[in-house]
Specification:
Elements (H helix, E strand, L loop, with lengths): L1 E5 L2 E3 L5 E8 L6 E8 L6 E6 L6 E3 L7 E6 L4 E6 L8 E12 L2 E8 L3 E5 L2
Length: 122
């Protein structure tokens, strides 16, 4: 069971980055997927979440309108498009599986990737 993030890096304020997460070892299409971030000295926080069919999404208030989460159930990937990056956005970003459906029954079962660093600096 693996979640592998990629796409982090250094970007100037106002710039854009796209994070990707490749999933393996579980039924991705039945799983609710999320992106979290953790800045130094702060708790890990939920940034965005996407439902199994991509019909429902959630965004932290401070990123709504700037970030976009998407998924491809044929490729077992989830992405986070980050636009207009701000000085408060730098953190290690983590891909997360929140849980999965078996029929209509939902089991919360966290899985984490290793994280990818996002740095915003001029």
């Amino acid at each position: 069971v693996h979640l592998v993030e990629s796409g982090g890096g250094l970007v100037q304020p106002g710039g854009s980055l796209t994070l990707s997460c490749a999933a393996s070892g579980f039924t991705f299409s039945r799983s609710t997927m999320s992106w979290y971030r953790q800045a130094p000295g702060k708790e890990r926080e939920l940034v965005a979440q996407i439902a199994v069919n991509a019909g429902d999404t959630y965004y932290k208030d401070s990123v709504a309108g700037r970030f976009s989460i998407s998924r491809d159930n044929t490729k077992n990937t989830v992405s986070l498009q980050m636009n207009r990056l701000k000085p408060e956005d730098p953190a290690v970003y983590y891909c997360n599986r929140d849980g999965y459906y078996t029929g209509t029954y939902y089991t919360r079962s966290y899985l984490w990737g290793q994280g990818t660093q996002v740095t915003v600096s001029s």
